[in-house]
Automatic annotation (TrEMBL):
Belongs to the WrbA family. InterPro entries: Flavodoxin/NO_synth, Flavoprotein-like_sf, Flavoprotein_WrbA-like, FMN_Rdtase-like_dom. Transmembrane segments: none annotated. It is an enzyme of class 1 (oxidoreductase). It comes from Limobrevibacterium gyesilva. Its EC number is 1.6.5.2. Residues 5-168 form the Flavodoxin-like domain. The gene is wrbA. Keywords: Flavoprotein, FMN, Oxidoreductase. This is NAD(P)H:quinone oxidoreductase. One of its GO terms (cellular component) is membrane.
Amino acid sequence: MATNVLIAFYSRGGTIETLANAIAEGARAEGAEVRLRRARELVSAELMAKVPGWSENAARQNALYEAPAEADADWADAIVLGTPTRFGAVSSELKAYIDGLGGLWFQGKLNGKAGSVFASTSTNHGGNESTILSLYNPLAHLGLVIVPLGYADASLYKAGTPYGASAVVNGRDLLAPTEDDLAVARFQGCRVARIATALKPLRAVG
């Protein structure tokens, strides 16, 4: 039976979306079944209209990806969370999804599943590591086994962080994640899928 990997993310301009798809590619290379889910906006359409491209990108992505649901987390053997930095922390859109998992937490249904995180920012030293690490807290509370990357692959010596894949995209000279960024993301997908597969029999015996 295939290992199920949920990649739940929020992406406004497409950077996190691109990393999410690279992580999905890595997980699928390990034989995993993947669900990509995009968290929805919490702000008004009027506010979105003030930022060039926001409304259009949201509409495009929402047509491609369903919103994450509690059932997706229940289905998953691994949950990978992706978010842009918001003042050095998780976006409210993704946090709202995490906050909605209390029912599964109460039932203990997430215990022993693999959990991992990735992030992006638009400035150097803009909070990728602090954002990823801040999400380790809810992963621990939910009972997931946190899967960092360490330096277990050569790609980590060129990009990313030992905590999770990342990218810096400023929209000027840096328009999208680099190939080095994507290599780390693919490795993250592979690593998470492998560890989730190893954890499955342990979860079955409690």
